[in-house]
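Issue: copy button drops trailing tokens. Both records pasted manually instead:
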Amino acid sequence: MDQPLLGQPSDSRRGCCSYDTLKAWLPILSWLPKYNLKWLQMDMLAGLTVGLTAVPQVLAYAEIAGLPVQFGLYSAFMGGFVYTLLGTSKDITLGPTAIMSLLCFSVVGGHPNQAVLLSLLCGLIQAVMALLRLGFLLDFISYPVIKGFTCAAAITIGFGQVKNILGLKGVPPEFFQQVYYTFYRIQEAKIGDVVLGLLCLTLLIMLVFMKKNLSPDDSEDSTCTRVARKLVWVVATMRNALVVVAASFVAFSWDAYGYNVFTITGETSRGLPPFRPPPTTDTTANGTVISFREIVEGFGGGLAVIPFMGLLESIAIAKAFASQNDYRINANQELLAIGVTNIMGSFVSAYPVTGSFGRTAVNSMTGVCSPAGGIVTSVIVLLSLAFLMPAFYYIPKASLAAVIICAVAPMVDYHVVVKMWRIHKLDLLPFVVTFLMSFWEVQYGIVGGVAVSGALLLYNMARPKIKVFDQGVLVIELGSGLSFPATEYLSRTVHTQALQASPPRSVVLDCHHVSIIDYSVVCELRDLLTQFKLRKEQLVFCRLRPTVLDTLLAADLQGFTYTDTLEAALQMESRGLLKEQ
């Protein structure tokens, strides 16, 4: 099947009002003219499948965010409409995720008005980043930090649902207190919730296992075999919806006979959310009004962490599926799409959203052909809000907990620790710092990991690899670019190896790995040349790259001497033929 070309890079030479520029800002104009009946069929099938997967998931994710379950649905439909206009990936679906829900809870503590305002502010930050082309800032969050955070978040989220499996109430949300009180009050567990929760977990795990072990299609298979394989795939893909519906029927049946054996979701707001500006104030339980400024101050570092993590998660997923399905995305356009989604979502009482890996995988595997599949998903969510809210009353919390646990379990990637140990042991440091600090406060874990990664990066800049060879003349080979943090280290190496030797020795500085050089380094080199001249020795540069050579020539260094090759420098030194250029 032909894939639509979704990512269209902008050209600075195009007119600001040209059709090409409009297509760069509205990628729908690139693929809509190619739309056909086959794409429509596949998009409707994929959107329906994702919609049936999304509804039970987003209800569960609202629980993680500490919000009433309807807020999960409020947050799940705007992304489909906005992304169809602005997105450059045919596969990705925007909506609530486990990680964003946890981050939201850590910042707003389950206050709906503050969660909606957080969505607006995050969207504004993300959209401004897109307009200013600041997507490169995401590159400073390293892979070990991401993995450390996701592993800790998965454990935090997963264990946070154990109380719902046990039917416990009043367990504190903080992780360490949660662990203590869950085990301390385990004797209060409700048998009905435990049995139902374990049964749902077992069914979900079995269906996941069945889907993973499905044999590939074979043209020699009989029709019955192909139909059976497709049926297993459909049931396994829709497992969340099927399990939650079945559990709800069980809870309804017991309730009809007057037996209250399950902890159920309970009363939820009915109907579609009103379209209105997000609230700028909040009211506490005792009636105290919290001003906009106080709310924003309460967000603290979360106002930086949540937009970044939302962008990081969404773009990483979009790039992964673009590579898998052989098309390209426009990263800055993705920033704009998710930013506008969060801004518009705040007008329908949504909390911050991002790309969902699980639902994107379902979308891709079902054969979606364009972002229009998201419209079908959004329509299903809206229909659920309009007509099914009374049925959500009977959804057992234990079944939602089982859905969440199965969704986050694959995020605990212990294999990555072994790989980092084998490849680059130092990467374990930001991983461990992020992992451990995330159990204290999620945003502190990310900030701590980024700080450690930054310190390691700065250390590598300040301590570039330097190799010293004795070939009659002392040869010092620089292993990377030179910038101001490395000046003291380079000077100390040259002084120790050559200038402070007895007698002092000339040096050939091999710079073929050096691609950048700054003013601080030039000043240090000027001082070194003076020191060599006082000792009547030579400092010779060889194999300089053109840009570095131009910089050094422009500095007009006294005594600056260079050759094109290392061999030429050694021969000239041995013959005493070195000359100033």
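Record 2 (pasted manually too):
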Amino acid sequence: MSDMYKSAVEGSLQRNLSTVLPSGNNSDIKWSYVCGTTSEPLTCKHVGQLFDEKTTEFASRTCIVSIYQDISKTFAEVRKEVDRLAAGFISLGMDKGDRLGIWGITCYEWYLVQFAAAKAGLVLVNINPAYQAAELKYCLNLVDVKGLVCSETFRTQNYYKILNAVAPEVEGSKPGSIKSANAPALEKLVMISDKEFGGAFRFQDVMKMGDSKEYMDKLESLQNKIQMDDACNIQFTSGTTGSPKGACSSHHNVVNNTRIMGQRIQFDKKPHAICLACPFYHSFGCIMGNICALTFGVKIVVPAAHFNGKSCLEAIEKEKCTAIYGSPTMFVDMLNLQRQHAYDVSSVETGIMAGASCPTELCKNVGKELNMTRFTVVYGMTETGPVTFQAFPGASTTLYVNPHVEAKVCDENGKLLPCGTPGEICTRGYSTMLGYWGDEKKTKDTIDSKSWLHSGDLGVIHENGSLEIVGRIKDMIIRGGENLFPKEIEELLHQHPKVMEASVVGIPDERMGEELCAWIRLEDNTHCTEEELKAYFKGKIAHFKIPRFIIFVDKFPLTVTGKIQKFKVIEESIKKLGR
């Protein structure tokens, strides 16, 4: 993005700030409100229409390469297989609006299911591949999953066996006619496998069912019945409560969000190829990755069934990837391997870092050492499309609101705060989810009566319209009456030459209420002491922000998407320190 265009956007944001000044004595105050402006309107296409349009426009381009499966398909080839699978789902008795779950590893078949579900008017339900029986049962029943597509196995997971622990009736059922007391809505099971399983259809057999002209005609007629505001995607998110909620997005949310996001990263300027290490079940993979790539005719490269830094770098070298998607932890691992082996990353120029707090020092190193000189950091939530703020290309962490989105920073009562004042980030607009499936109360707790979605994140909107993320409200640490934000301390730790990764938490303390504890993962072949790190802090940060406890670790507890699980860091810290 040119400096001229960036300046114009900043100017537009400043003008927006000035338009919301309240009347009265405070008219000279600039308030924490921004609204992304653009001359390009939102589109009313649904995902199926977008799919048909783009697979025609980019028919001869390579759409997806799954390296570990030895699969490479053009957009035209993918179009045929998606249509067959969508018609196959219709032949099974899946009707518009039914929920279709997908539970398993990242693979080519997963990609087909995503777009086939959209074309068949189904709501795709993304289930974490690491979930066990109790979690699976909860998800199936929370959103009344009628059909389920499963992988066979992955690592220690035997998906069919786990499903039978939830619904023991499956194995003895006729395919398509499952009746389970524990999962009463579940009727259809499709296994991604060449093997035969009791009560299940094979994936390839469902595709063959879709060859029927009858079901192809039904698929075609559906395209004018699906509406832009229909539900198309459910992602499970724990939020601040710990119990999964089914965040439901519409076609309108994801079609527009991915186009706007892709334009800012300049995917519309030339053909690109993304090394997509993010799991497809997460919005980073299936929305920011798959749908965005479709929109701009971008090739998706899947290195492995799960994140593996070595596989990613090998894929980049082999497929000449121009972009890399990943969470901060994923980039830490790739950087570490790149320093050891010096893969050819000369084709890379851009990418996206998201999913967790993105340390400035890490962003600088990624830009320099992985050749991602024009990558962007994004901010958002599963509940917001998912992207609401995004940096401009150039290894920058400075976030600006995306077009067609309103954002504000407010206090605990929802009152707008002056620029430069920390508060809760709230957003409003087309990107806001339809709600949490079947849970009106939790939806109202998150989206207020004026349509503002409350993120639970702390941020600052500056006078130039940029957003600075301070941290999560629940992560704020109160030590002796002082409000401390882990992100500030983590940023400083990442600047230390020996620190590869850091996470700061608060642990209980009888006198101070909470004390700071830092987990540190050091660069390979380095040694550092607690005293050395504490000395490093002096003169750089207030004394009460220096962690009292420092724990050196080889790895962090992570989610499947690479986020550090801070609640586990707290639990382990308490055990290690005997608190």
